[in-house]
Design goal:
The protein has 86 residues and is an alpha+beta fold. The protein has one domain (1-86). It is built from two helices and two strands, in the order E-E-H-H. The chain has a two-stranded parallel ribbon with strand order 1-2. The radius of gyration is 15 Å and the shape is globular. The chain starts with a strand and ends with a helix.
């Protein structure tokens, strides 16, 4: 579980930024094989670090809870261990 950013080469270019086609992830326009440095997915991969804050604006949806996913990406070890025991 959780919310992740990832490349999406199978979606039509027209869906990005205008159509909700996911159940939680944020798909970024990409090419199959990820060999095109001019795609949004390549830009994100080349210009971000693990732990960077990502703000998704104007969705009209609620803010994702920090414990969505209970994993090492968004919780320290003590929080993860306490949550996974429940």
């Amino acid at each position: 579980s959780g919310t992740f950013l990832h490349g999406n080469y199978w979606g039509a270019k027209s869906i990005f930024g205008s159509v909700n086609t996911s159940h939680g992830c944020v798909g970024l326009s990409d090419t199959k094989g990820a060999n095109d440095p001019n795609t949004p997915a390549a830009w994100m991969f080349n210009n971000s670090l693990v732990g960077d804050v990502v703000v998704i604006k104007n969705t009209g949806d609620r803010t994702v809870s920090p414990d969505n996913g209970l994993n090492g990406w968004n919780m320290d070890w003590a929080q993860w261990k306490a949550g996974s025991a429940a």
